[in-house]
């Protein structure tokens, strides 16, 4: 088990290293010098040089890369070109919106998808299954930001149950914060839940065809007991993969959804940074997103081992 | 023939037809402004109504279909052309450093959601439809590489491949002659799924301004434009949304139908 | 009153008749074997008794356990009977256990699901039954997972689950088909012992007539969903009434006559061959371990000779086969054909490859489903410098198809249009088409029904006299090897432990392992004398 975890950890570190090089290299090919962009065309040469030194632009590319990576390791993401504030502070503020939103959505989608998938698999071919499958087919086809607009139209503009946008903050209590994230989370969660429910169903149906399910029935388990005791845990293996993948879709999706609800999250930060050509912010946010995806996949790998004893002993 | 296949093919061809017809005919010029006729709900003259500049929504939807289809199709092409050979090679050299290199490389690419790639490209080169194609296309590469490798690996274990090796055939020849034709069905089905995901991704990118730029019409940007007007002109948001849903639904049904029709046993990763 | 009484049982799945008016009975303490070839519907009887039939199954007739009809019982009552009154053992031990639960949990589940005893007692009972089936918990803790056990051990766990509540009836569906002969003998002994100890009735489904003759008190022979003959074992073996029964038994012990081999002249020389596989490291910084699949193997195969290679799974015979074919390089030693090495440098030697062909076990996986027969059997032409084209090619295809008993017209058909036996004929045609000096038969008849197997063996004998074949026949089936080879190699743990003239080795085995193998293989009784 330990060996398996270490091996995964090594591969995680390697992926992060490669990803950071790629991100740095792409940002490097950007035309123009951030310092002269910030100061305008009429800047004095010495002011420019001073700013370049302040931003750490006056050293070689290789050195800059290692300064960037080394800084990130200790939580220093550099200084924003536009706001002249530490990027880490900007990101930390926004993370308190984006991360809860993604987790909220992931929880919702799992809570909806598991029962729906299990229900459909247990009633394969019956009207309940057909209804769930029809709904999920539609759910997959709905763009989440459009669904978000419809939710705003119905629940904010017409029914006035929620605010149409904005984030209430966590200062007034967790509940207020969650309330303002509810519509965005639903918009993110439902299309993902549709996918997850389908995966859950088909994974369960695959398991139901396995020999050991017949063994379980021969022991005297009812169809339902066999499904719950032997089916669900085995079906979790493919389902976990999808949950891991979904996290990256949820992160990306939340960036878009933040636009619909005017949420001050990472998405807004990154779009403001793009229009202000604040490349250091873009670079750091992208690295953070990639880090999150790779990290979640690492956790999924560990979860596999928890579910599947074959992985634990195979090392 | 099954119901999914027929319905899916019908919906997909409807959208494709709209896109093709838009090259020669649209009810109105999709770019023509007509401010006095702005924000009309659907009516006899403007079937889908007009937007805040008085442009005909029906014409814009038709032309927008072109953008969606072109972006998604080219992106699937990029994914297939680069991903499939990688997957075939990795499977043929299973366990070698080359396999390891290809698949680890794909893992890294897979950690970049297409939106993130689009953000990076846009930050550096500015926005445009080409970015969307590249971003979605890059994301498709590991999808096809993985699915090809997975399917090819199980084929390499089969005895007919051993028989081909005993007949002196090399890896490249076996991959082309025996492996590829036997994974083709799976790839066609996965291609349909990626096509539909591409349509969704393109809409999302255009919505946040990372995709097609004005004056190129696109469904995603129509939705972005509609956002502030949704309370008094809901058709502006409703119609492009339904267009996206119909297209994606059609392609997904087509994919499911093709899978059942070509081979009921193949499994497709839906992610 | 019989324990299990089946009367006029008919079964159809989606209107396709599977079983037609079956009658059979099992008494307490009795072993009844149902036998027949694939498609006879014998496994459906087991599922019908369990009432675990596939969707769309329609059943008619009577199926009584202790006098109570099981057909159309409410599902809840059937659940109470399954596992408690009727236990079942399946064919495939590798997949019959849930991979993510410990064996102890899985055995205890049988007891707990029926609320037969409190958990603490259930644990004690689970330990008892595991010990009874040969897995004492001091050596095989209940916390083991299925993947940590061998196939035979897993089958013991399945049996433990089935007998944990001492059911009155045990059903075993091909319980030893997936196992090696020595393991098979142990599992059959175990089942026999359980029947006499607990007084259970055992309904055993198997295609293996030697097992049937060895185990059963009563035999039921089935064909195409019908019972063709039933009788007490001794009596039935001596007085077979039905022609099909006689054919089955004849085919099971089918003998062929091989032409006399020519004077020995070496063709294939295997000299001190070693093949290691690297094992994953056990701990992070340990040196990786090695598994020596083939260990210092040497033998010579003479021109015109038919050589057998027998051994149980994992003995290294597949690895050796792949090494001879040049599909894998060996670490040490030398394999040469006609004096030329199979590998030169690190590349397989094409000049040698064109002198060898192979026929595999699986008639379904051996062909690309997208190609027509003509293309399939001409694939080895790729090895030739100039491969025949046009009418010459067609003639060669026609000649080969005729030689293996098919029609030249079959060349334009796809593989899925052929039965398993026909496919093996096509595989032989493919192997023969470039007239190789050596053919390897890798378990080539193991997946076939006995009657088809007999035909293929006849075909081989016939081809031997026409084409002077030299072959290496790799098989786990001793009775087949005994009739189809001149000389035999016995392999165990990567080494050849005995070799010699086939008849000599079988009648006077020298090595203890060879003796174990031969003793473990159930043998067919002499039959047919008293046939009416």
UniProtKB/TrEMBL annotation, chain A:
Locations listed in the record: Cell membrane
Q: Which residues cross the membrane?
A: 101-122, 134-157, 177-197, 235-257, 285-307
Q: How does it sit in the membrane?
A: Multi-pass membrane protein
**A GO term, aspect molecular function:** dipeptide transmembrane transporter activity
InterPro entries in UniProt? BPD_transp_1_N (IPR045621), MetI-like (IPR000515), MetI-like_sf (IPR035906)
GO CC list? plasma membrane
PROSITE patterns, per the entry:
ABC_TM1
Mind telling me which Gene3D superfamilies this protein's record contains? MetI-like
The primary location reported for this protein is membrane
Q: Which Pfam families does this one have?
A: BPD_transp_1, BPD_transp_1_N
Q: What keyword terms does UniProt attach to this protein?
A: Cell membrane, Membrane, Transmembrane, Transmembrane helix, Transport
Which residue numbers delimit the ABC transmembrane type-1 domain? Answer: 95-300
- Family to which the UniProt record says this protein belongs: Belongs to the binding-protein-dependent transport system permease family.
Record-linked PANTHER family: DIPEPTIDE TRANSPORT SYSTEM PERMEASE PROTEIN DPPB-RELATED (PTHR43163)
User: What protein is this chain from?
Assistant: Peptide/nickel transport system permease protein
Organism encoding this protein = Ruegeria halocynthiae
UniProtKB/TrEMBL annotation, chain B:
Gene Ontology cellular component annotations, sorted alphabetically: plasma membrane
The cross-references to CDD domains, in alphabetical order and at most eight, read: TM_PBP2 (cd06261)
Q: Which residues form the ABC transmembrane type-1 domain?
A: 65-255
User: What is the predominant subcellular site recorded for this chain?
Assistant: membrane
Could you list this entry's UniProt keywords, alphabetically sorted.
Cell membrane, Membrane, Transmembrane, Transmembrane helix, Transport
Q: Does the keyword Transport apply?
A: yes
The record's section on Pfam families has: BPD_transp_1 (PF00528)
Question: Per its UniProt record, what InterPro entries does this chain match?
Answer: BP-dependent_transpt_permease (IPR050366), MetI-like (IPR000515), MetI-like_sf (IPR035906)
Transmembrane segment boundaries:
6-28, 67-88, 108-139, 232-255
Q: Where in the cell is it found?
A: Cell membrane
Taxonomy, superkingdom:
Bacteria
Membrane topology of the entry: Multi-pass membrane protein
GO terms, biological process: transmembrane transport
Q: Which Gene3D superfamilies match?
A: MetI-like
The record's family statement is: Belongs to the binding-protein-dependent transport system permease family.
Query: What is this protein's name?
Result: Peptide/nickel transport system permease protein
Source organism of the structure: Ruegeria halocynthiae
* Taxonomic lineage of the native organism: Bacteria, Pseudomonadati, Pseudomonadota, Alphaproteobacteria, Rhodobacterales
From TrEMBL, chain C:
Q: Where in the cell is it found?
A: Cell inner membrane
ABC transporter domain boundaries: 4-249, 268-518
Q: Its membrane topology, per UniProt?
A: Peripheral membrane protein
Cellular component aspect of the GO annotation: plasma membrane
Using the UniProt record, give the first listed, main subcellular location.
membrane
The record's annotation in NCBIfam families points to: PRK10419.1, PRK11308.1
Q: What is this protein called?
A: Peptide/nickel transport system ATP-binding protein
